[in-house]
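Fold this complex.
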Amino acid sequence: MSSVAHNMLRWFRGAGESGLPRVAATKSQPRATRHSSGLAEFMRRITGDEKMCILDLGQTSHINIPYFTQRGARVYNEDILGSLQEKSYMVRDEDGVQRLDITTFFQENFDYPENHFDAILGWDIADYLPEPVVKPLIERVHRILKPSGGMLGYFHTKDAGPDAPFFRYHVLKNDTVELAPGPNFRLQRVFTNRHIENLFAGFSSVKFFLGRDNVREVLVVR
Amino acid sequence: MWKSRDDKPLPITPSQPAFTPPAPAPTVTVKETAARTSDPFRADVAHIGKSVLIKGELSGSEDLYLDGEVEGRIDLREHTVVIGPNGRVRATISARELVLHGRVEGNVQAAERVELKKSSTLMGDVSTQRIVIEDGAFFKGAIDIPKEARLDARKAVAAHAGSSATAPSLSSISSSSSSSSSSSSSPAPQTSLLEPKSQG
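Structure:
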């Protein structure tokens, strides 16, 4: 069983040291769990306040929603990557090239009041977002977070390739997440630490955690 | 508590998700709840077929199985509303229980329970005492559980933990899929690379 989990974590970061071919995750594949220090820190920040507003940017999780609502939080769910798959957001410009209509997308998605959320679970969606969406999304994250509110993000390291599979994250414990196979979203880029710091330059703090599986966890605080 | 019915409650089939209330409750209540929500063709359930389109307010004094389209408002506060796989609703819904297989765009207020089946899509805010979500359901919006309901759930968890050696995780109460921890890896030790930087 542990070898299965090991392989799952290797997929997470792309090809393994052995050069095994990357395999796209499917629904039938087993799930793995991983310790998350970033999540533990995230949970420490939100524990104790029953009126927390938490936004989960991952796919709808049948585990995360009860997990947080039973701890007193009001949970919001917005599957950004899923929404981006809608073809209505793709338009053709004058040159006939298809591009994402960012304006319409943000009119219909991610529309929240300023200073609304205490915490946001960003997971690793930034790695899978189309380039034009990344910066506007982070600017909106900054705007809708309350001062001292935090966001947890996961980032692949340079080992990850474009076929690194997409996983959904379920919170099992305050410091443990389950990786469940998700849709075949394509990894768009790998951020360096410098990129991440620049991306969150408007935030008051950026804290990095690095696991043995080379996944960088980042907790940013507005 | 429930209406007396002539027809026998249907047995819970293995395909039905196990619905286990956190608080110790008579078994008959659980069976009856499952039977009520699983049999849309009971005599005391109003049935709206998939070719029906309703615009306006829908209210009444019986349970409803809806497989058609509704635009407007559904107000069945004392009753169970089941929206079938073909159901398409653009309305605010007030019910005692909502079981969703189809699609809803609108806010939902359910006094007791909301159950999102794996084929369901719900876009709107939900206020209920208990929510059950199957893996695969799509939800966009906010979920609010009233404080009293949370306290009841915590008491139930505490009672359960006291009575068994291995306490279940809170999430297992409302999650209808037992997908967690099918395999596990040893925790990877992690180190903080950067301390918080101080910026304006």
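Residues 2-80+114-221 of chain A form a domain with the Rossmann fold fold (CATH 3.40.50).
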